[in-house]
Amino acid sequence: MAFMKRDVNIGLLILIIASIIVFSGFSVYYQTTFKDVSLEYQSKLEQLGTVTTELATQKQALNETYSLKKKAEQDREVLDVRYKDVRDENEKISTDNTNLRLEITNTKNDLGVAQSDLENKKVQLAQTQADLSDANSRISSLNSKLDEVCSSYTALNGEVEHDRC
Questions:
Q1: SS3 of 22-38
Q2: What local confidence, expressed as pLDDT, does residue 112 receive?
Q3: Which among 8, 13, 45, 138 would be 20 to 30 A from 119, CA to CA?
């Protein structure tokens, strides 16, 4: 029995040593694996921090872009309103311009007619003045003849005056 005890103790000793070696191997393996996983976790955590920072930067840029887009839309709406106002004003001015051109044309026509009438009136006035001058000279001539006739009549009738003389 001593042999069996010895073999059992040696077997148990081998079994304990093997268990310790296996346990140590597993411990080293798990420690190495844990260290690799921990390093990979740290790396991924740093990447996540970088991505988070980049995402925050992109979000800020996106917010700025969004606010610029909103401002551009508001500016566009304001410009659209102003454009419509200017276009309406331009149409009104164009209509007024056309009306004024027609009015100027009519006024020029009226002026031409008035100038033509004025020229005709000047000719008539000149003719009338010539006729008046002729009539005045005829009246003067007739008055002088009448004076002569009156003097002759008075001389012939002996100082008797006639209604005309």
A1: HHHHHHHHHHHHHHHHH
A2: 94
A3: 138
